[in-house]
Amino acid sequence: MPPSPTVSLLDRLPAKRRSPASVPGIADGASRAFDDGLKEAIRIFDNASVMITGGTGSFGRRLVETLLRHGKARRVIVFSRDEFKQYEMQQQLSALPSESMRFFIGDVRDGDRLDLATREVDYIVHAAALKHVPAAEYNPFECIRTNVSGAENVVRAALRNGVKKVLALTPSTSTAPASSPRTRSSSPPTT
């Protein structure tokens, strides 16, 4: 019996995909469903004080904008160590209702500052982390101080200040970094 032929996925021509606009109503319906789901999800923050660590990062900025546009949070606190990014964010969000906004300069590695920032906070969305693997590999102790000790500081401050809930995010690179030998090939690394 002859061996089975092997077919590479690279040998196949890419399938032609229809653009969402060419399928009337589907993209609009999906977008509306997403918006409705998002609005429902952020209702947990209605009339609450929400603090976002790493609030000037890509996720934090988007969450803050979403809370200001669609939410009814009593207070939205951006906790970040980058005062220039905070300034830029204030300028960019100036057209949105921002009377509930507060900006705290601070680092999750500083437990005392977190204690002050989390007073009268109901929810913390912890998005502060060093996410770039090459930088973390070159600066491992700084990465540990931010990603591990910083997360511990957030939890301790939350416990001390009676925060209802902490929602913690983690980058996929923390479990399967792109630079890891295991993610580059399916076989284990050789020595």
The major beta sheet can be summarized as:
5 strands, parallel
CATH architecture: 3-Layer(aba) Sandwich
* Order of SSEs: HEHEHEHEHHEH
Total number of helical segments?
A: 7
- Approximate strand percentage: 5-15%
| Full CATH superfamily name | NAD(P)-binding Rossmann-like Domain
Shape field: globular
CATH third-tier fold name: Rossmann fold
CATH class wording: Alpha Beta
Report the average pLDDT across residues: 80
Catalogue the unreliable spans: 3-27, 182-188
For the largest beta sheet, what order do the strands appear in spatially? 3-2-1-4-5
Structural class: alpha/beta
Helix percentage range: 40-55%
Number-wise, the strands total 5
Query: How many domains, in number, for the residues?
Result: 1
End-to-end span in angstroms? 38 Å
Query: How large, in whole angstroms, is the Cα Rg?
Result: 22 Å
Describe this structure in words.
With 191 residues, this protein is of the alpha/beta class. It has a single domain (34-171), classed as NAD(P)-binding Rossmann-like Domain (Rossmann fold, 3-Layer(aba) Sandwich). It is built from 7 helices and 5 strands, in the order αβαβαβαβααβα. The radius of gyration is 22 Å and the shape is globular.
In a nutshell, what does this entry contain?
It contains seven helices and five strands; from the N terminus they run H-E-H-E-H-E-H-E-H-H-E-H.
